[in-house]
Amino acid sequence: MPDYLKQLIRDIPDFPKPGIVFKDITTLLSEGPAFARAIDLIAGRYLGKGIDRVVAMEARGFILGAPLAYRLGAGFVPVRKKASCLPPPLKRPMPWSMARTLCRCTRMP
Fold it and tell me: What is the pLDDT of residues 49-68, one digit of tens each?
């Protein structure tokens, strides 16, 4: 990532608890050309690789995943916390520790 983009990401120490440095991307998102460049840089790694869907988790994942999917000409599949899904949630095995608390809210063929 270019330095000018890194400079737009704020570090918030000890949030949400001591010892954690939260990376605030809202400062990057508020700068249109920088946000577009960040999406283009991410997309550049995957263009032409047959990506047909981008799957992203809540919050930042939705903010970055939707424009990334658009840029790749792919569909977007949001993954949410189980409590936020409309019934019936679609459960799939996921390879990370939060898997028990997540569900996919969009049906895929």
Answer: 999 999 888 888 899 999 99
Omega cis (within 30) before 16 = yes
Rounded CA separation 56/62 (Å): 6
Which sequence spans correspond to the domains of the chain?
Answer: 1-45, 50-109
Contact between residue 63 and residue 57 where contact means Cβ atoms under 8 Å apart: no
Please answer whether residues 27 and 10 qualify as being in contact, where contact means their C-beta atoms are separated by less than 8 angstroms.
yes
Global pTM value: 0.75
d(CA 78, CA 75): 10
